[in-house]
Hints:
4-stranded mixed β-sheet; glycosyltransferase; Beta-lactamase; 19 strands; disordered N terminus; Penicillin binding protein transpeptidase fold
Amino acid sequence: MIAAAAYPLVALTGLGAKATAHAVEAKTKLLATALPAETSYLYAPDGKTVLTMFYEEYRQYTKLSDMSPNIQQAIVAAEDSRFYQHHGVDPKGVARAFVANTRSNGVSQGASTLTMQYVRMALRDSATTPKEVQEATQQTSLRKVKEMRMALDLEKEMSKEQILERYLNSAYFGHRAYGIYAASEIFFSKTPKDLTPVEAATLAGLVKSPSEYDPADSDQKEATGRRNYVLDRMSQLGYLSPDSAAAAKTEPIRLKLTSPPNDCAAVLEKYTSWGFACDYLKNWWSAQPAFGANRLERMDKLRRGGYRIVLSIDPKIQEAAEKNVGAKEGSGSPFANGIVLSEPGTGRVKAMAVNRTYSLDLSENPQSSNPEAGPKVKANYPNTVAPLLGGGDLPGYQAGSTFKMFPMLAALNSGKTLSTEFNAPYRYQSRVYDGWAPSNASGAMSGRQTMWSGFGKSVNTYFVWLEEQVGAEKGVRLAEQLGLRWRTDVDREHASPTKASKWGAFTLGVSDATPLEMANAYAAIAADGRYCEAIPVQAIMNRDGTPTTYATASGIQREVAKPRCRQVVSADAARAATDAARCPTGDTPARGSCGGWSTADSVRGTVGRPVAGKTGTTDSTRSAWFVGYTPELAAASFISDPDNPFNAVGDGQSQIPIAAVAETLRDGLKGQPTRQFTPPSDAIVG
């Protein structure tokens, strides 16, 4: 078949008439407003430091006024010397191509103008189905005629300058460089505004065949020849003097190659540990309806939408977290020691750190510690991209007695007082949970307890009794309201409406949880019972600089990056829970007595300011936790083997999360004014 370019202009009145349906006209108008895909940028909290980018096609839209005249002239010289004379289709070019292709009995010459090329690129870039992609790029006469008609129509909608701007932002230059900004940066490490005639001619020459004329090849012969052709054309069109063109042709092609980072594994080396926060951002993004109807659409928006995203991580707090996790348990251990810090009142994640290196390279990792894993299964250390800290699809780790907070808070919110007493035995025979008989970790915990002493000493039998008084389902539902999700079949079954009332072991923390969930749940208590969804960003801006918004159920437009908060329990109940939670840390509650000792009494002295929290260990100390908070920050730290939960960390390492939280709160808040917790009311003290 003779190529579409061989059809004379008369085709537009024949075959072309059949192609000009209303759909084509509507598509033309769409192309006049549609912008090409653009790279999204992830920034550090200063809003200036680029941590990484997300893209399928590396591109940053650049206005024509921000491009050197050299590249504008070079692309016209290389691709369409009559660009400013025709109206979208060049009759002379069509006739010339027809003659040449007829003589060669094939395709020896094309007739595509810059406008026609832009139409083709825009149709390809705006395609949403494989069929649309095929229709935009297939080598058929019908496609070519549609392209001509749309080019003629487009020039009625847009100026030459607008078309040239869109073209230069859409063209592919090789090496994953889409658009002139990317090409300038990747090949010459500069902006389009600073391109010299030689550099501009080199880039313009690439559009015809990026691989054939690639100047990054060891042999630059083809690239140089093509560049020199463009320089000659620039001279013939009056853009360069003959002497300037001749001098430029003697210059070698001097490249300064740049490889733009892409995705979380390419976070700047200085910020490698921020990869886990970056990964959480992606998981969070994929769950936001503001960016699409499903995960696929949302991730496509991230890679093509040209967003400017500012991470919520606080560099000072992150540095403190990195320093204090893994200090005793390095990255070469199967036991992961991680920490997450959340800001009460906003839910913004301020730090995520674990004794692992965020990397896709697992080649040096040893075999997994899980005996059921195959011999080729690698361990999660020292390198991993697994979401060990939460926000992904991993279930987490049993959180032990840190869960005692939920039935206590439910009891306080239901009218119980901090002074609620029970003579807790060493072993308690439950009358509610089918004869279950849990015991305390030590005989020293037996005796009359209140919420202050029961929480401070972590008295199992007191909290099983308290849970019976208020109902286990209330603690379960409250935990859900505070952001916990059940990720295993066993947990989902126990938390179900028909089973939750009998889940007595819930208060002992037999469920899996992530440090992200626990930090955020305790942050709500620090915020007087106001829960805020965990959020990894300070700001998200559209490509035009406006804040990204979404519509609420009531139709109100809200910024995606703004905190989403709701009151879960009364402020007085939260303040009472905090007063009891000061006991485990060695702090002094405002209203009651801790009973003489506590499970983490070193924390107050380390932090050096009012602090509340709770320890947690599981059977045989397979994992150990500490969740602590001040009025300004909430932190959750754990130590466990993510590959094999039966690989016990042992009692000797149960202090590691306690130290990680205490030292990170101390270092992260250094220099900030000391804030006090608000005491609970007389009514709830009892």
